[in-house]
Write a structure and sequence with these properties.
Structural class: alpha/beta
Order of helices and strands: HHEEEHEEHHHEHHHEHEEHEEEHHHHEH
Mean pLDDT: 82
Low-confidence stretches: 12-28, 59-68
Shape: globular
Distance between the termini: 96 Å
Number of helices: 16
Radius of gyration: 26 Å
Length: 402
């Protein structure tokens, strides 16, 4: 009987505690949060870091449907937690990092290797997602965030999703996450290529055009700039890393070939120079294989790539008719040469951004053997060849043979 009473009393206490804690989860409590969407990191003047936080708009219906608009907070400190403590004193709400999905680091921070020190902070304590994207900024992180907000009404989530979309449909921008960066630096099987972004103050934004037009002025003014519309920032290319340290950058074209070599490429338009002029093809990755061999501690390998292509701009006028006899071999050799060149660029700065080490590590039966092999030192002597097969759409062959 007593045990039943104790059990009943325990149930009553549990129910009461649920009622108490549930009061913290009502909609009013949610209004007390300021949700941080982006964290930008620049070198500080008085302290180690100048940290900028981009906050989501105040009004949103749920976690997946966030209203447009954002605001900026910034301060200096030696750690993220130090800055957070300073900002708490200036805010009527509590900062919440559960929706943070982008880190932006100024290239000076990235080149110094200070990203490692930054990420030794307890991100779990702030509930920052390991899937958050890491971006390197050619300008200051603050300029990047300001340039992205220049249109006033940019939906933050949409801007971030567009970076992923561009990587999938063009292959000319690298994308990697906090989790991938951790894995690369802790496991030593590969290095990362991170998104690289730029700021262009001369771009006449959509918002500025609307403001000028509403005032009865010429919406594009007297500017001779050819860059009109959109935001003042754009993301393209790749920042190449050796461990935690940024060691180089790739432009849009080289990033496409990096994506092809690593197998991350999906689709994209690629320009191929021929004697008749520049031909543009739309390529889709069909197959990607890496094979490696280790002999006397030297690694050799081959990457085989199969691409289906269609013509977007045919300067030859008869690509289909002469495909098997001329252009197929010529274009395949061009792709192989470009892939070899990009691999050499990575190796020259000791960056395994292609991820060859992932395949090499499979040759070892234990982590101890893999660590003793010391892959990054062996990487400098690694030799790699490429074999590319291009499959031209039957439509173009049929049309040009008529």
């Amino acid at each position: 009987m007593r045990s039943k009473l104790r059990l009943t009393f325990a149930n009553i206490l549990a129910a009461a505690s649920l009622l108490v804690f549930s009061s913290c989860l009502n909609p009013v409590s949610l209004d007390n949060y300021a949700y941080v969407a982006t964290i930008g990191v620049d070198p500080g003047k008085e302290y180690k870091y100048d940290i900028t936080l981009e906050l989501q708009g105040e009004n949103f219906s749920n976690a997946d449907e966030i209203s447009s608009g954002a605001s900026i907070l910034s301060d200096e400190g030696d750690t993220l937690f130090e800055v957070i403590n300073k900002l708490y004193q200036r805010l009527p709400t509590e900062l919440n990092f559960s929706r943070t999905n982008v880190f932006v680091f100024n290239k000076e921070i990235a080149e110094s290797g200070a990203i490692e020190e930054f990420f030794t902070l307890s991100l779990d304590k702030l509930r920052i997602r390991s899937s958050s994207m890491v971006v390197i900024s050619d300008c200051s992180a603050r300029e990047f965030l300001g340039g992205r907000m220049a249109n006033n009404d940019q939906n933050i989530n949409r801007v971030h999703e567009n970076i992923y979309r561009d990587a999938l449909i063009s292959g000319n921008v690298a994308v990697d996450s906090v989790a991938s960066l951790y894995e690369a630096c802790s496991g030593g099987r590969f290095d990362v290529g991170l998104s690289y972004c730029f700021f262009d103050s001369e771009i006449i934004t959509d918002a500025k055009q609307r403001d000028e037009a509403s005032q009865g002025n010429n919406p594009i003014g007297d500017s001779k700039s050819e860059r009109i519309g959109g935001m003042q920032i754009y993301v393209g290319g790749a920042a190449i890393f050796d461990g935690w340290k940024m060691v180089g950058t790739f432009d849009f074209v080289d990033t496409q070939y990096l994506s092809l070599a690593s197998g991350e490429f999906r689709t994209g338009s690629i320009a191929v120079p021929l004697d008749e002029g520049k031909t543009v093809v739309f390529a889709e990755l069909d197959e990607h294989k890496i094979s490696v061999d280790i002999k006397d501690d030297k690694v050799t390998g081959e990457i085989s790539i199969t691409l289906s292509i269609s013509l977007e701009q045919d300067t030859t006028g008869n690509m289909g008719a002469q495909w098997d006899g001329k252009y197929k071999d010529e274009m395949e050799k061009f792709f192989e040469t470009e892939l070899k060149r990009v691999f050499s660029r990575c190796r020259d700065v000791n960056s395994d951004a292609i991820g060859i080490g992932k395949e090499v590590s499979k040759k070892f039966t234990s982590a101890a053997e893999w660590e003793a092999f010391d892959w990054k030192n062996k990487y400098q002597d690694c030799e790699l060849t490429f074999d590319v097969e291009l499959i031209l759409s039957d439509y173009y062959i049929a049309v040009t043979r008529e």
